[in-house]
Design brief:
By secondary structure, this protein is of the alpha+beta class. It has a single domain, classed as Double Stranded RNA Binding Domain (2-Layer Sandwich). Helices cover about 30% and strands about 40% of the residues. The chain contains 3 helices and 6 strands. The radius of gyration is 15 Å and the shape is globular.
Length: about 150
Amino acid sequence: MDSEDQINPSWRERIRVTDVRILDPTEGEARNDECEVHVELTLAGSARSLGQATGANDPEGRMRAGANATLDALIPVLRGRLDLELQGIRSLREFDAFLVIAAVNGSGGGESYFLVGAVAVPEAEAVRGAVLAVLDSANRVVEHFVGIPG
């Protein structure tokens, strides 16, 4: 636990993933060769923020769509104070685990950030892993721009 967590230990509980849905290609606005992912975040107890994105209907495309839907859900939360852009999303099997790694570029408050997050999930939950990896990458920077009270 770093000193930042000791000052405000409950912060990570304040932005939570409450729903990740991968729509069937016949649902939503995606074409048959695309998927559509919807992400719902819950903020500071009850406020909700929704994001959606489309991507290729293959494992990497679904992960990318999940990552971008997460960034989309963060836009209204950040209110233009911090811009986040997905640099990349990858999955790999290492240490007998399935890992999803997200790289996110950020800029705000006169600073630039290169953020990396990773999460271990079952392979069948790769899209949810992408969502969690993006939040993991951005959480320490987002904290300063969201205005969540400590």
